[in-house]
Amino acid sequence: MRGIHNPVMHENVKPKSGSIWSMYKRIFFQVRSQWPLLVVAGISILAVSLLEFVIPQLSQYTIDHLIPDKRYDALIWIALSVLGTAVLLALFNYMSGIAMATIGQNAVYQLRNQLYRHLQMLDVGFFDRNRTGDLMSRVTSDVGMLQQLVSSGMMSIVTDLFTFVAVAAYMMWMDWQLTLVVLATFPLMIVTTRFFTKRIRAAFKKIQESVAEVTNHLQDTLSSIRLMKSFSTEEYETERFAVRSRNNMSANIAAVKLRSVYEPIIDLLIFAGLAVVLILGAKGTMDGNLTVGTIVAFLAYLRLLQNPVRRFSRTLNTIQQSAAAYERIVEILETKPQVVEKADALELQQVQGDVEFHEVSFAYHNGVPVLKQFNFKLEAGKITAIVGSSGAGKSTITHLITRFYDPQQGTITIDGHPLPDISLTSLRKQMGIVSQDIVLLNGTIRENIVYGKPHASDEEVEAAARAAHAHEFIMSFPLGYESQIGERGVKLSGGQKQRLSIARAILKDPRLIILDEATSSLDTESEKAIQDALEHLLANRTSLVIAHRLSTIQRADRIYVLDKDGILEFGTHESLLAKQGKYKQLYDLQFPQKQVEIETVK
């Protein structure tokens, strides 16, 4: 299970407002290149707003003129006009709907890709601090929330805004006094909306966070299903999942309660305005100041005026849900990597492989130093090995060479160039890494071998597999190199996985090779075969070998022995044995029979 449960926001994030306005501004920035569709949508929305006036006008004309004058001949034209207006409304609504949906989907597509691309640019430390399930939730669930807004909510808001302004202006022209009385309820609606807005958004943010917790639990447990089965913890994990699921349920209920109070209040204010219009309109009609057709048309316009408000109160649910999701997305997008590349970074072409640590001090996020004023050197074309107790910083050295992290103090150079002066891509292209943590993709054997060199020929792939002594077991599968290995290589043994990872590194043909417990999963026979292959492969290349098993490093040109205080001793295998120091102790622990043989000879 990765990292600790902390929010993504940390000291390298510049907090910005997650306001509705900034959300729409970012969305508009995403879609501004689609101006032809924006023009189509704008014209369609304007047409819909104007066509909304037609039917109330036809109703008023029918009541005030056709009915009193008994104009039977004109009724068919009124009916055709209403039907024609309805057809045009349907057409323009269709056009605006398609245009806005296309714009919205493109905005979400670009935003999701931007978010994923930004995640790829963040340093390894970021992923140590944040859980995989939470990040997955932000890329999928949170972006999905925005998709609801831009696909349908945005169209509704834009259309309703045009309609509201146009209808309000026309109603003021019809009867400004009656219109002002109706509009007097709107400040109350605004105050009510402002009161509930922050509360609803906070409620939906809790929902999104609870969804992330559920996703985290799923990701952790499903990826560790064999561990669960072996320890019979199914019931325990089910109970833990139920707690997270219950938290999500409670967060959803809290949001529904807020919405259930807010929407009836808006409806009450709307009906209050309708009651005022009915009373004053009826009085005006009875006094002879208004015609029946006028009051009917006014009521129709009032419906057009109030419908956007009613729809907005319903859409507020989507808006605040989207705003909560947007805040979580922005937290990622505004996170700055701690390992950054200079604008004028050097592009390494071909390195010799001299790597030097000078007075390097480094600590992970807990602040406990792993390396303190550490000095260390890899000589070009030589095999350098590191041994030592767990926690001495062996793997940390490889993380610093690959610039997964930067040291807090000191410098690391390759061929005399400080690592921060080199582009990350060109630096890592020079390296091949085979780790004890084997990472394989859910795909074919060939896809995993060519991962670092996707355009490799079949001959190159087979040569790399043979060098890693993997060709024989690969060809034992019915489909050979096209065989599926399952998620994380579940269909392979530990040794087979390791040999595939070694073949992948061999195919890349790097100048600097890092083997971090590379043979830890191999049996004795396979280990010997791999050692023979590596001896040929590592010739004239710089290589760093980290190992607990001393049998794998006896041919190294230099061996460093580390503990938590730094380098205890270094030398060749023979010279270190002669020193009778820490290396000799480790050797005697792993090969007690050798010690017995020596004592017997004596």
Automatic annotation (TrEMBL):
<feature type="transmembrane region" description="Helical">
    <location>
        <begin position="265"/>
        <end position="282"/>
    </location>
</feature>
<feature type="transmembrane region" description="Helical">
    <location>
        <begin position="75"/>
        <end position="95"/>
    </location>
</feature>
<feature type="domain" description="ABC transmembrane type-1">
    <location>
        <begin position="39"/>
        <end position="321"/>
    </location>
</feature>
<dbReference type="InterPro" id="IPR039421">
    <property type="entry name" value="Type_1_exporter"/>
</dbReference>
<feature type="transmembrane region" description="Helical">
    <location>
        <begin position="179"/>
        <end position="197"/>
    </location>
</feature>
<protein>
    <submittedName>
        <fullName>Multidrug export ATP-binding/permease protein</fullName>
        <ecNumber>3.6.3.-</ecNumber>
    </submittedName>
</protein>
<dbReference type="InterPro" id="IPR017871">
    <property type="entry name" value="ABC_transporter-like_CS"/>
</dbReference>
<feature type="transmembrane region" description="Helical">
    <location>
        <begin position="35"/>
        <end position="55"/>
    </location>
</feature>
<dbReference type="GO" id="GO:0016787">
    <property type="term" value="F:hydrolase activity"/>
</dbReference>
<dbReference type="InterPro" id="IPR027417">
    <property type="entry name" value="P-loop_NTPase"/>
</dbReference>
<dbReference type="Pfam" id="PF00664">
    <property type="entry name" value="ABC_membrane"/>
</dbReference>
<dbReference type="InterPro" id="IPR011527">
    <property type="entry name" value="ABC1_TM_dom"/>
</dbReference>
<dbReference type="InterPro" id="IPR003439">
    <property type="entry name" value="ABC_transporter-like_ATP-bd"/>
</dbReference>
<keyword id="KW-0812">Transmembrane</keyword>
<feature type="transmembrane region" description="Helical">
    <location>
        <begin position="288"/>
        <end position="305"/>
    </location>
</feature>
<keyword id="KW-1133">Transmembrane helix</keyword>
<keyword id="KW-0472">Membrane</keyword>
<feature type="transmembrane region" description="Helical">
    <location>
        <begin position="154"/>
        <end position="173"/>
    </location>
</feature>
<keyword id="KW-0378">Hydrolase</keyword>
<dbReference type="InterPro" id="IPR003593">
    <property type="entry name" value="AAA+_ATPase"/>
</dbReference>
<keyword id="KW-0067">ATP-binding</keyword>
<keyword id="KW-0547">Nucleotide-binding</keyword>
<dbReference type="InterPro" id="IPR036640">
    <property type="entry name" value="ABC1_TM_sf"/>
</dbReference>
<dbReference type="Pfam" id="PF00005">
    <property type="entry name" value="ABC_tran"/>
</dbReference>
<feature type="domain" description="ABC transporter">
    <location>
        <begin position="355"/>
        <end position="589"/>
    </location>
</feature>
<dbReference type="GO" id="GO:0005524">
    <property type="term" value="F:ATP binding"/>
</dbReference>
